[in-house]
Amino acid sequence: FLEAGDGRTALNLALAERPDLIVLDINMPDMTGLEVAEQLRLQGAGLRVAILSANAQEATRAKADALQVPLFRKPAKGEVIDQILALLP
């Protein structure tokens, strides 16, 4: 289990540690979860990413879809956690 307090740290940890699954909040200091996901894709990291958002507006959902990153609504409870965990290999 790794935790980052901001997007840049999340990106660096993901690239260094290569976890099985990365769950990012949409709103983080430095970089949003979508920006981190985009950088991971651009760098060819091939990591599984999921995004959490309390306010999934259409533009946010469209961007996540374009990045092929699943977007889940907060709060992450029961069924949402099960759906996120189903992304694991």
Structural account:
The protein has helices at residues 7-17, 33-42, 58-66, 78-85, and strands at 22-25, 49-53, 71-73. With 89 residues, the chain is an alpha/beta fold. It has a 3-stranded parallel beta sheet. Helix 3 links the parallel strand 2 (49-53) and strand 3. It is globular and about 30 Å long. The two termini are 16 Å apart. The model has no long low-confidence stretch (mean pLDDT 91).
Number of helices: 4
Give the N-to-C terminal Cα separation.
16 Å
How much of the residues is beta strand, in percent?
A: 5-15%
Mean pLDDT, all residues: 91
Structural class: alpha/beta
Spatial strand sequence of the major β-sheet: 1-2-3
Q: How many strand segments?
A: 3
Task: Identify the overall geometry.
Answer: globular
What is the CA-atom radius of gyration, in angstroms? 12 Å
Q: Please provide the ordered H/E string of secondary-structure elements.
A: HEHEHEH
Report on the biggest sheet: 3 strands, parallel
Low-confidence stretches: none
- Helix content estimate: 40-55%
Task: Output the keywords.
alpha/beta; 13% strand; 89 residues; 4 helices; single chain; 3 strands; three-stranded parallel sheet; globular
Compile the SSE list and pairings.
Layout: H1 7-17, E1 22-25, H2 33-42, E2 49-53, H3 58-66, E3 71-73, H4 78-85
Parallel strand pairs: 1-2, 2-3
